Amino acid sequence: MTAGRLLLVRHGRTAYNSEARLQGQVDIPLDAVGRWQARTAAARLLTRHEPTAIVVSDLSRAHETASFLARAAGLDLAVDARLRERAFGLWEGLTGDDLRRDWADQFAVWRAGGQPEGVGAETRAEVAQRVREGILEHASALGPDDTLVVVSHGSAISCAVGDLLGMPTDWHGFAGMLNAHWTELVATRGDFSPAWRMVGYNLGPTDASTDWNAGPDTTRDSDAAAETRDPD
């Protein structure tokens, strides 16, 4: 038995997102825009899906994002620390300029898709394994007509989705997800591989404002966050 559908939701915006800082496992709350994103995304998701269960990372930005959806859906939240963001070690809290200045060689390796040494960051394989195990454990408690919503983090989701689709851990075919957007997978029926198929990636209410990353009714900011986004 497994859930028939997985919706993997990234948390809303934080101050670190706005400042283009690596968050990793630093426990940063949503900012005002992030709360608006979470509320708006929850309303849109519920027009398309009826969640059976919601499981969430133990970091506050994911928990607060999930709480908007849980209240609207009338569901309780299950917290699972395995759904935490990828740990970035000594780089957590730093910007792209910081890394380029103080960690030039390691930063070049990372931007090329490699694993920098001496940083203390989790590998993509480690993240994929723990997040996948958490997702599949919760999915296995549900049936084929059920929808499991997983509220997590950008790098954690992209690593896990690649793994669930049978891609190698060094594959970087996914662009970074927007805050409070989701990826949709459905269980494969029959004896086929992989066990999950992608229906959509980076889905969400991007028409809710002229610039989703800046909040409602604002002018467009730069894409500075792309510089320090994990290259997934």
Automatic annotation (TrEMBL):
GO terms for cellular component: cytoplasm. Substrate binds at R10, H11, G12, R13, T14, A15, Y16, N17, R61. It comes from the Bacteria. Residues 218-232 have a biased composition (Basic and acidic residues). It holds the Pfam family His_Phos_1. The active site is at H11 (tele-phosphohistidine intermediate), E85 (proton donor/acceptor). GO terms for molecular function: phosphatase activity. Signal peptide: none annotated. Residues 206-232 are annotated as: Disordered. This is Phosphoglycerate mutase.
